[in-house]
Amino acid sequence: MDLKGKNCLVTGGGRGIGRAIALQLAEYGANVAVTYSRSADAANETVTEIETLGARGMALQADATNFAKAEEVINTLTEEWGSIDVLVNNAGIAQDNLILRMSEENWDAVLDTNLKSVFNYCKAATKPMMRARGGSVINIGSVVGISGNAGQSNYAASKAGMIGFTKSYAKELASRNIRANVVAPGYILTEMTEKLSENVLEAIKTETPLGRAGNPDEVSNVVAFLASDLSSYITGEVIRVDGGMAM
Ligand code: NDP
């Protein structure tokens, strides 16, 4: 896979799945900027690794819920590197609770971080991608956005909303050669899932035909493919990376 010359942005790219995505894009030759909200050290370490791979890297502090910040990030990237070719909306949080116990704050925080952020970065990146006559947007969803999950109504709604947004965006921008797809992981071993109890992890294994949780590289493999020209005829698609869980 060859991503040489492509300028990429991964929101929340300093840790977890985002970090695996950033490093894999760089391994294939892309320049990669990552954003973070709190984890500056992790983001800077990721950039050091990107640069070790011979690519250009950049870490930018930007709360993904903030539209003005998204515009600032895209402007910085296009001014410094000339274009944005690949946008990966990865930043996300979970604040799980049964609906009777879920607070308005839980709802707003998860919808703002997981869904409004996608609007923020897609809107800000569209003009530069149109000027460059093409681009690839990859939104990191979740299988629960397809299947739903008790205790995750806010998270599932944010990821289901992302699918509707992505398909609409893909239809609007297809004539400009801008593609948009969703990668929907199942259970992937990161800090987000390491809080799960042994019982829950055992249940996940039982419910997953491949019999195990996934790792971040298994998600970034698909993201790299969607970022590349190998996927040039794929848009508006949702690709599950879930060991068969939601089939
Ligand atoms: P982690 O908790 O390990 O990492 C989350 C990342 O998002 C961090 O880099 C974090 O940066 C960033 N982030 C969170 N809030 C914001 C914000 N307001 N602004 C900017 N960045 C932010 O999670 P994962 O790596 O596991 O998850 C990554 C994506 O994959 C998420 O969208 C998640 O919903 C999705 N996903 C994960 C699954 C899993 O099993 N792990 C399954 C399905 C989907 P910082 O620390 O600086 O805030």
TrEMBL record:
<feature type="binding site">
    <location>
        <position position="90"/>
    </location>
    <ligand>
        <name>NADP(+)</name>
    </ligand>
</feature>
<keyword id="KW-0521">NADP</keyword>
<keyword id="KW-0444">Lipid biosynthesis</keyword>
<keyword id="KW-0275">Fatty acid biosynthesis</keyword>
<dbReference type="InterPro" id="IPR011284">
    <property type="entry name" value="3oxo_ACP_reduc"/>
</dbReference>
<dbReference type="GO" id="GO:0004316">
    <property type="term" value="F:3-oxoacyl-[acyl-carrier-protein] reductase (NADPH) activity"/>
</dbReference>
<comment type="subunit">
    <text>Homotetramer.</text>
</comment>
<dbReference type="GO" id="GO:0006633">
    <property type="term" value="P:fatty acid biosynthetic process"/>
</dbReference>
<feature type="binding site">
    <location>
        <begin position="12"/>
        <end position="15"/>
    </location>
    <ligand>
        <name>NADP(+)</name>
    </ligand>
</feature>
<keyword id="KW-0560">Oxidoreductase</keyword>
<comment type="function">
    <text>Catalyzes the NADPH-dependent reduction of beta-ketoacyl-ACP substrates to beta-hydroxyacyl-ACP products, the first reductive step in the elongation cycle of fatty acid biosynthesis.</text>
</comment>
<dbReference type="InterPro" id="IPR002347">
    <property type="entry name" value="SDR_fam"/>
</dbReference>
<feature type="active site" description="Proton acceptor">
    <location>
        <position position="155"/>
    </location>
</feature>
<protein>
    <recommendedName>
        <fullName>3-oxoacyl-[acyl-carrier-protein] reductase</fullName>
        <ecNumber>1.1.1.100</ecNumber>
    </recommendedName>
</protein>
<keyword id="KW-0276">Fatty acid metabolism</keyword>
<dbReference type="InterPro" id="IPR050259">
    <property type="entry name" value="SDR"/>
</dbReference>
<feature type="domain" description="Ketoreductase">
    <location>
        <begin position="6"/>
        <end position="191"/>
    </location>
</feature>
<comment type="pathway">
    <text>Lipid metabolism; fatty acid biosynthesis.</text>
</comment>
<comment type="similarity">
    <text>Belongs to the short-chain dehydrogenases/reductases (SDR) family.</text>
</comment>
<keyword id="KW-0443">Lipid metabolism</keyword>
<dbReference type="Pfam" id="PF13561">
    <property type="entry name" value="adh_short_C2"/>
</dbReference>
<dbReference type="InterPro" id="IPR020904">
    <property type="entry name" value="Sc_DH/Rdtase_CS"/>
</dbReference>
<dbReference type="InterPro" id="IPR057326">
    <property type="entry name" value="KR_dom"/>
</dbReference>
<dbReference type="InterPro" id="IPR036291">
    <property type="entry name" value="NAD(P)-bd_dom_sf"/>
</dbReference>
<feature type="binding site">
    <location>
        <begin position="155"/>
        <end position="159"/>
    </location>
    <ligand>
        <name>NADP(+)</name>
    </ligand>
</feature>
<feature type="binding site">
    <location>
        <position position="188"/>
    </location>
    <ligand>
        <name>NADP(+)</name>
    </ligand>
</feature>
<dbReference type="GO" id="GO:0051287">
    <property type="term" value="F:NAD binding"/>
</dbReference>
